[in-house]
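As a warm-up, study this chain.
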Amino acid sequence: MGFQLENVVPWGRSLPEYIKMFGLTLDDFKLRILDCAGGPASFNAEMTKRGYSVVSCDPIYQFTDTEIAQRIQETYPVILKGVQETRDRLVWQDIESPEQLGEIRMAAMRQFLDDFPAGVAAGRYITAELPNLPFDSGKFDLALCAHLLFTYSEQFSLEFHLKSVLELCRVAKEVRIFPLLVNFSNDVSPWLEPVMNHLQNQGYTTEIKQVAYEFQKGGNQLLRVYTS
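Now compare it with the structure written out below.
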């Protein structure tokens, strides 16, 4: 059985959130960027409007904008319920309430949906998933991966994480992964240390960097991987 839309919980973030999550600078904007597991984020749409180069990949892109929009409507109340139940583990500063969070996410996802058909036609949205990406080695300068690796440590094995990060390193000169916490918790992923050790043994430089974004308490760090 192939990838099923009913197993997806789409939740998109905006360009301002990406800037904070990944510590992006104006110089970074000029790079060839891969947004891996981009989902229904508005990052690609917003960057494209500004004249920058972003390719997003996700298995959800095999579906139409109408199908994705329907799935967003189905899962939206479920996600907000989960946020309500874990609100004590979250930082309510820039975002003041679950309701405001929902409004911000929906606005980002609407931008994505508006851009999606044209983006598919232009080759900016590619159907693909880790740990096997359909890109040439070194195609990108920077690969970003948010809320998949480490976030879903309970669902994805250490082997999956190792293969996935190495695949990102194959297609991009630099990789940034955010956050380092397990989903709906304040616990650092148990896979973080073994992944870093393995990468270092493979000749990569790894660095944990603090960023100006914290929604999960303690979730204000990313993993940066690059070749020395």
